[in-house]
Amino acid sequence: AAGLLPVADQASAAGAGAKVIRSDNSSVVFEITVPQPRIERGGDGARVVIEGYGTFSPPGAPFLPARTFHVAVPAQGDPSVTWTVTESEALGAVTLARVPAERFIRYGDDGIPVSEMYMPEDPWGGRIPPETVVSARPAMMGRQRVMPVQVRPLMGQDGGFVIARKIMVTVSFGYASGPAPERSGARTAPGVSGVWERMYDRVLVNPGDTERFISPLKDRTALRAPMAPGKRLKIKIRETGVYSVRADSLIASGLSPSLSNNGFALRKLYYDASEPDLVREEDIPYRIIKGSVSSADIFEGDDRLIFFARAVKDDIGAGDTMAVFNTYNIIWLFEDEAGAVMPDGQGFPSGTGRLQTSFRHSEKMRKDTWYNKFVQAGMRDFNFAGGPQRDEVAIPFEVHDAQEGSVISAYIRVMGNVKSNPSQDLDFYIRNSGGTSLIGSGFVSSTEEKVFDFGMIPVTRLAEGANQLVVRSRENTYGFLINDAVIRYSRMTAVHDGYLDLTVSQDLSSRRIDITGFSGPEGHLVELTDPDSPMFNDIPADSFRADGSSYTLSLNVPAETDRRFVALARGAGMHISNIWIEPDAGSELRSSPGPYNTLVISHSDFLPPASDHLASYISWREAQGYRILRADVEDVYDEFNGGLISADAVRRFIRHGVENWGVEFVLLIGDASEDHRRIFIGDPPETNGSPPDYVPAFTYSVNVIGREKDEVVAADKFYVFLDESPPSGYSAASFQSAPSPEGSGIQYLPAAAYP
């Protein structure tokens, strides 16, 4: 089993060159004694080497020794640092060696990368930074706030160098006035464990101050009562649009039968730290269309629930617009709560405005089909609509009712696949039953992301129904990927499968709209001019006229501004599969009273009733005195991210535990996958493709020295850096890992660490 001891990478500060002189409610003063330096000379110059000191110099700059000391500071205030050099030693004229860098050259015959050391330009331009002592922003180490203070003892003077041997450092706590402020009503935190106490003794300059500086637990807040089990549903949303779902489908998926027409609410839940219970609820207005066999006051049978919802890529508040973790967005249905009813629209006046027969439609191609591990360093978008291919990438799209004689445009985001590629030429085509037509050309270099926007393309390049956007490389060597693409064309006002999303263009008076293709003389218009406040229009039968085997809806639409509508035939709307609807049993993590010093976060596959292995482990640890809260990671997503999968949700839960319960340790149970959405999944999925992402790790792309490609890496240590987003100092905390009996990873981390 995994051990319970957190490990710190920092060198010991206490008793190794730092001595506390004074510590009170306003500041801490300590003296640094710098060991005797030695000068190591070589062909490239001299290095001043000090025991226990590294260097802060970037590649190309002179090698300057430095060391960081960690100072405990109070939970509040804006600390700052001042210093005085009290003793120094002259070193005379020394030509300092510079710090080399490493770069990739090629792959060897055995496939192993070959690199070389080289000397880049001096980023300091021959100057030496003048600061002898610098500080960085304080961060939390466990429940103790800590400020890093870096000492750089080598100083330039009179054309030579001196080394500071004794430095008096003062860290002022930065209160506006007077002693440390007290938090009214703050709860006393339980004492730190012996493990953390030993860590503080090893790492901090002033470990004796932790008892009075340690952060108190947050004041208790009045949380809303948890939802009763079985009284809410989670509904998955794949794309943005107006959805229509039958009552019997919802009931088959867990909705209580015999609810009244207004006996439930639809809501989107967002994590919001400013809210008392950390959740912001936004009502989703809906409308019920009564069926032919249902009771007048009961939602049942063929009744339909109509509402507008956004895909996760369009929902900025959900925090996953790149869809790193989620294929679907989540909305919630709450029983026995009053929801927001979609109000009636303003209606359509009589008269005849200027006829509008078409509108500008955008067909988006953004379904991710490829997870790319080798994206450019710094990117968080790892999923692509197509690629990587050396020769050709083809992405399908649909076209319906394109206006004859019009022109189209194409917007395509492309990324190169190989850093060493100087440039590759690309050609862009549209392919369909009528042939393959060139629409533009361009080039992409290295792994850059580039946007191509081609216009004035004849609409004859499109075919009704199935089409493909094709991108070809002339070199067939380096490869490329397509992030996403949009085809914009003029579309006639005709419903397809009973659905049409159209924009009525602005006019000084009004517009007449003829919408063709209805199967009968009945339908609805949902206005989305303000998508957050949709309005419902039930269209009377006399607004339709027979047009051969179909019907045409004619309306006079006031259009002082552009107005957006979705036209629906009766029973039509975007589809929700029954497997996208599931009941939620509810959870009470946020309202748990605590205190706890350990969180165990697990995927449900390793919790009862699926598995009993964890129960014996928890019992063993509780017998040793650990206060443990066990959490299903799905409940963590629900309470700390509105039901959406996210590494942020896990970290928010850990932060909540540290601040409210005094948590010191976290145990994660379940392997992670860099391909969070399992875009690569084989047959059978248990053994092929990407593994399940039981408890997600934080993923990010970095430059890998000696590699031709940057690379996506995963870090569970993200969860213990509670002050940074994303964190930068991953090496500051360590964790241990061991396989569980089911083969999952068990990882134990200190609850908060420090860069």
TrEMBL record:
Q: Which SUPFAM superfamilies match?
A: Caspase-like
GO molecular function terms here? cysteine-type peptidase activity
Keywords of the record: Signal
Q: Which InterPro entries match?
A: Caspase-like_dom_sf, Gingipain, Gingipain_N_sf, Gingipain_propep_sf
Single Gene Ontology BP term? proteolysis
Q: Which Gene3D superfamilies match?
A: 2.60.40.3800, Gingipain r, domain 1
Query: The organism sits in which domain of life?
Result: Bacteria
Checking Pfam families in the record gives:
Peptidase_C25
Q: Which residues form the Gingipain domain?
A: 599-725
- Which named protein is this? Gingipain domain-containing protein
Organism, by scientific name, is Eiseniibacteriota bacterium
